[in-house]
């Protein structure tokens, strides 16, 4: 299966590395030509949980016609870039291309459906953690399962194909019949961990060690759980707060994607995480003051660093 990953950030590079190492034809599509050229010249450099590798990586381009058609398109761009990324990939997409999102936040599935109304769409979450150390250079800092599911009955078969592909590349993967629940479960994890790591500038593993932060995380999650309930979403974990703590431990050495964004002066995904929860809460009449406060704080950090896309 020829796979094209859009977005050579930490997670895009990690999956490109894991699939290539397993022998699968895997490409990266980058919106920046200078970065694509650098990675093509230097290759991918990986350290951490998967071992240390310097992998030649010629299969990266900013030009879709160089890559040609994709069997599987994986989105690993920031949630606020999903629509633009999908547009840039039009030349790669045939009637049979499967589109997979493993991005953070909610709204990505809807953006894919709008751009490609008739394609097989698979969505899910990953508890893999990776830190971008430089261009094409990552630390594999957290190992956890990837959970995927078709967004409708027609894409179940496609989800199974992806599961088999990932498993054979040593990416532990499970399937779910309730993608929405899984996406919301991960949303609540990100709403607890990401803003606090960005505000405090600490890796994920530090959060459970500080009781005041545990209190804030619990409240953010409880608000989110109430909003999920009122929106008719079944959360996948019986104790969502315990799950957050478990993810902090499993990815202890990782710097969350939001912390990495703030440190790099990039715009964060706050409006697709805590900000999205607050908006849902307004629609369903459930207040989310802790999530609202976290949203404002991260937006203030972005303003302070004049964050750019
Ligand atoms: O998804 C993540 C992120 O950083 O965005 C977690 C699971 C928190 C790992 O760092």
Provide an overview of this structure:
The chain has 309 residues and is of the alpha/beta class. Helices cover 46% and strands 19% of the residues. It has twelve helices and twelve strands. It has helices spanning 10-21, 33-42, 64-67, 82-88, 108-115, 156-168, 179-200, 211-230, 240-250, 257-263, 274-284, 289-304; strands at residues 3-6, 26-29, 44-48, 53-55, 60-61, 70-75, 93-101, 120-126, 129-134, 137-142, 146-150, 173-175. It has an eight-stranded mixed beta sheet, with helices on both faces. Strand 9 and strand 10 form a beta hairpin. Helix 4 (82-88) packs parallel to helix 5 (108-115). The model has no long low-confidence stretch (mean pLDDT 96). Residues 104, 127, 129, 142, 189-190, 193-194, 204, 247, 251, 254, 256-257 line the site of ketopantoate.
């Amino acid at each position: 299966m020829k796979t094209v990953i859009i977005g050579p950030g930490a997670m895009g590079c990690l999956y490109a590395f894991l699939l290539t190492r397993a022998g699968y034809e895997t490409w990266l599509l980058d919106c920046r030509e200078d970065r694509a050229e650098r990675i093509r010249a230097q290759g991918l450099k990986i350290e951490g949980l998967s071992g240390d590798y310097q992998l030649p990586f010629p299969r990266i381009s900013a030009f879709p016609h160089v890559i040609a058609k994709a069997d599987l398109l994986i989105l690993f761009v920031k949630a606020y870039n999903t629509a633009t990324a999908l547009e840039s990939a039009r030349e790669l997409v045939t009637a049979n291309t499967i589109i997979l999102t493993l991005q953070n936040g909610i709204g990505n599935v809807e953006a894919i459906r709008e751009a490609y109304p008739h394609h097989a769409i698979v969505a899910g979450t990953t508890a893999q953690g990776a830190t971008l150390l430089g261009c094409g250079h990552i630390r594999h800092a957290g190992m956890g399962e990837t959970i995927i599911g078709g967004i409708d009955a027609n894409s179940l078969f496609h989800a199974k194909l992806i599961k088999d592909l990932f498993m054979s590349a040593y990416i532990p993967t499970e399937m779910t019949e309730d993608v929405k629940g899984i996406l919301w479960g991960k949303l609540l994890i990100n709403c607890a961990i990401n803003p606090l790591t960005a505000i405090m500038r600490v890796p994920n593993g530090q959060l459970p060690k500080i009781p005041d932060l545990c209190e804030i995380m619990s409240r953010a999650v409880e608000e989110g759980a109430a909003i999920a309930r009122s929106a008719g979403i079944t959360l996948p974990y019986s104790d969502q707060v315990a799950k957050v703590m478990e993810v902090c431990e499993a990815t202890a050495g990782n710097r969350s994607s939001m912390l990495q964004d703030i440190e790099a002066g990039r715009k964060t995904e706050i409006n697709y995480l805590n900000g999205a929860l607050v908006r849902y809460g307004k629609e369903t009449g459930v207040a989310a003051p802790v999530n609202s406060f976290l949203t404002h704080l991260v937006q203030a950090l972005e303003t302070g660093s004049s964050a750019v896309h």
